[in-house]
Design a protein that fits this description.
811 residues; 26 helices; 33 strands; 17% strand
């Protein structure tokens, strides 16, 4: 059927689209292969030139703050691309140094870090472990050996002889003064003599006073001398202990030096290691009492004795913190769970006697330590969801060091003593991966973000539909088949995959970069080919996979279609009705979207309230939808209110709509319904309409055009195609058409039509079969046109309202 505007000769054929414009077909002949098994592996990433240039710059510049933020939608290859680039780049870069922690002998609550060339720390750890084993074995023997006993006995003999001489001299002096030096349970006692015999107490009392005074004076003198000798004897004992300790230290130092000598020679070029060895030797000497033969301590419990604990040598070992001995090139670390401890390391504890105890060997490295000297990849969303991680990451970048802290300390009411490891200097390129919304939120709300992540690598979800990208797509399909050992694709199968990619992009001139969806399609198509025992994946297998995905997700779509078929939802696809039109909507269900028509009605009456949106009044419409409706007021004012006031009251409603709606794609639909209601000319119900409009009456592009067309086609097909049905879309949306095969077939057969328009006047003419009309030289509209009828109705309404107002005043 052809509609003709008799006054201007305009025909609907001028707007009707041929089937060739309804989709883009990928010609299999452009591929020079029989199956994808013949193709080489894919080198690089498809269609992300801007992002790749940014990555190359960000990785090349070494100045501070030039870390990268990889932004893009999931599935665009952002993670796999950066990992592939880093792994390739890192192999040519030097292996970073090892790091280890050692005991700080000057402060028990500190741990010192030592930096060593790659592989050296592991060797050092093994060497020190062997050294500790020898220390534990050899040091106790120092105090069990013959040399020790000989030197100890010699010192004892020397000082015993000195002590003996002191007492012998005192004894001789006492004898010369008629006193006897005796030993008793209370120590040394001086007893006076008379005729060589001790003077008894009774005998002493019987002596004359002068004699007693003489004896007492001599005794006091000797007693003072005894005190001096005793003090000298004690000094000799102290000297003996000091000499013995010096002798033991000398022997222990000789033994320790002998054990350390080989390692000191081996690591003489590493000053920090030599300093640690020196501190270890000094500490061993200071702990000399712990290495002597343990003595048995008697206790009151029968058959039980307590022995002194064996000395510990753990503090002399090495904590191998970061080991790069097996690293090939710079490290590339991806931390999937970026908790604070996983990124910045932790200090582990163990329970001992009910208390949490730790030591320097329980300091564990985090991802930032392992990536030091290389690259660290983090998921931005996970970083932001994890407490402390983001702020600590910024501190590490700012201070250029990684500090291990117990973050719970700041929340305790009482400060506790804990281990404080020395910070590790940081030299690492940090890469955050996230969606664009996270990047722009951080850039706007966090003043530090732009200082520390200066390089933005933006992965687009679209790429240009060029011959080169089509060939690259074929290589991508081949690469996935080779990597996952899938059935190879033939040219027809690859072409259908690329066509589906264009459908996902919503543009004939674009292809989708959401390779996660394409990869799933490749796997499912290969599965169906395998089920059919086909050696090559063809077009039919890809089609089967697409239909299977839709079938798994379209339960709601089928139920809505059933309600339309059962006339529960009122949709008319034949006849003509005043003020009623079939608008086209899209239902978004997360992973699936589909289109269906919705009845839009408009009613007008005398008044000044303007156009009332019922959805807006009940808060079921979004701001964009409301904006589209308010534009209609501007359209009516500009077109019809130059010579009269606009005294219009109207209501517009999406019938049987019980959920929220948004978007401006129904603004032309609502305008057509209003024009019909004002002019009294019915609208064909066999045509569905979509498109937004501006105040000049120009029809603008909308989204979801494929779903909308296919949704209305499904309703018409279920009721039987009459050859009069079709959809009016904006001309700007023609490039976005990637319609299904059954729609294209119906258009080819003339059973269904798609019209593309640029103005509202073109649309209302198609919907009513009556010309929209143009203004004449007098400023009026062509007689009998839609615009003339609307203008006349609005003039009548304005005059009626004026007359009504005058009558009220007279009354």
């Amino acid at each position: 059927m052809t509609l003709t505007d008799k006054k201007d000769g305009t025909s609907d054929a001028n707007f009707r689209l041929p089937a060739e414009q309804l989709a883009w077909r990928c010609d299999p002949a452009v591929f020079d292969f029989t199956t994808t098994a013949e193709l080489p592996s894919l080198d690089g990433t498809i269609g992300q030139d801007r992002a790749l240039a940014a990555i190359d710059f960000g990785l090349g510049i070494r100045n501070g703050g030039f870390n990268l933020f990889i932004l893009g939608e999931p599935g665009t290859g952002r993670s796999s691309t950066i990992k592939k680039i880093l792994n390739s780049r890192a192999t040519a870069e030097p292996v970073p140094d090892d790091w280890c922690y050692v005991y700080d002998f000057s402060d028990d609550h500190q741990s010192l870090q030592i930096r060593l060339p790659a592989g050296t720390a592991k060797t050092l750890g093994k060497d020190v472990d062997q050294l500790v084993e020898r220390l534990a074995m050899e040091l106790p023997k120092v105090f069990e050996g013959k040399e020790y006993e000989q030197r100890k006995n010699q010192l004892g003999s020397e000082y015993q002889e000195k002590s003996r001489r002191l007492y012998e001299g005192l004894e001789q002096e006492a004898e010369q003064k008629d006193y006897l030096l005796q030993r008793s349970v209370n120590g040394l006692v001086l007893t006076p003599l008379r005729d060589g015999e001790p003077v008894l107490q009774q005998e002493f009392e019987g002596l004359g006073e002068d004699e007693r005074n003489r004896i007492e004076a001599v005794g006091a003198e000797l007693q003072q001398r005894l005190t001096e000798v005793t003090r000298e004897a004690r000094e000799l004992d102290k000297e003996l202990r000091v000499a013995t300790l010096a002798m033991e230290r000398e022997l222990l130092l000789m033994a320790v030096s002998r054990l350390f000598k080989e390692l000191e020679e081996k690591y003489r070029d590493h000053a920090a290691v030599i300093a640690h060895f020196a501190a270890s030797k000094n500490n061993i000497i200071e702990r000399i009492d712990e290495f002597r033969q343990p003595e048995t301590v008697k206790i009151n419990l029968p058959m039980l004795e307590a022995t002194r604990q064996e000395p510990s040598f753990e503090r002399y070992r090495i904590n191998l913190f970061v080991d790069n001995s097996e690293q090939q090139g710079a490290p590339v670390v991806y931390e999937a769970n970026p908790t604070y401890f996983n990124v910045f390391g932790r200090i582990e504890h163990f329970l001992q006697m009910g208390n949490a105890v730790t030591n320097f060997r329980m300091i564990k490295a985090g991802a930032l330590h392992r990536a030091n000297g290389g690259y660290l990849i983090l998921d931005c969303r996970e970083v932001l969801l994890t407490p402390f991680t983001y702020e600590a990451l910024k501190r590490a970048i700012r201070n250029r060091e990684v500090k291990i802290e117990d973050m719970a300390e700041q929340y305790r009411l009482m400060a506790t003593v804990s281990l404080k490891p020395q910070p590790i200097p940081l030299d690492c390129k940090i890469i955050l991966i996230g969606r664009p919304v996270l990047y722009y939120l951080l850039h706007q709300l966090d003043v530090d973000f732009r200082k520390y992540f200066k390089v933005k690598a933006d992965f687009d979800h679209l790429m240009d539909n060029t011959t080169g990208n089509v060939q690259q797509y074929a290589l991508f399909v081949a690469a996935k088949c080779q990597q996952e050992k899938l059935t190879p694709f033939g040219p027809e199968g690859v072409a259908r995959v690329i066509e589906h990619s264009a459908r996902l992009s919503g543009d004939k001139e674009q292809l989708s970069s959401r390779f996660i969806d394409i990869t799933d399609l490749i796997r499912e198509a290969a599965y169906y080919a395998g089920q059919a025992a086909e050696p090559v994946v063809g077009r039919q297998h890809v089609e089967q996979a697409i239909n299977a995905v839709n079938y798994r997700s379209n339960k709601v779509e089928e139920r809505i279609q059933r309600q339309i078929d059962d006339e529960v939802l009122m949709v008319v696809t034949s006849g003509a009705v005043v003020g009623q039109i079939n608008g086209l909507t899209v239902y978004l269900l997360g992973d699936y979207s589909f289109g269906r028509p919705a009845r839009v009605t408009a009613r007008t009456w005398l008044g000044r309230s303007g156009v009332v949106n019922i959805e807006r009044e009940v808060k079921l419409s979004g701001p964009i939808h409301d904006k589209g409706l308010l534009i209609l007021n501007g359209f009516f004012g500009e077109r019809y209110a130059h010579d009269k006031p606009l005294t219009l009251a109207a209501s517009i409603c999406f019938e049987q709509s019980y959920g929220g709606i948004d978007g401006d794609s129904a603004s032309t639909t609502e305008l057509y319904a209003l024009l019909s209601a004002l002019s009294g000319v019915p609208i064909k119900q066999s045509i569905g309409v979509t498109g937004s409009v501006n105040q000049h009456g120009q029809v603008q592009a909308i989204g979801g055009v494929n779903e909308k067309v296919e949704g209305f086609f499904a309703v018409c097909q279920a009721r039987g195609l009459s050859g009069e049905q079709g959809v009016i879309i904006p001309r700007a949306n023609v490039r976005h058409l990637m319609l299904k095969e059954d729609v294209r077939a119906a258009v080819t057969a003339g059973d269904f039509h798609i019209w593309a328009i640029e103005t509202v006047d073109e649309g209302i003419a198609l919907l009513t079969g009556r010309p929209a009309g143009r203004r004449n030289q007098q400023g009026g509209w062509e007689e009998g046109s839609i615009n003339a009828l609307v203008d006349d109705r609005l003039r009548t309404m304005a005059e009626t309202l004026r007359d009504f107002s005058h009558r009220n005043k007279d009354t």
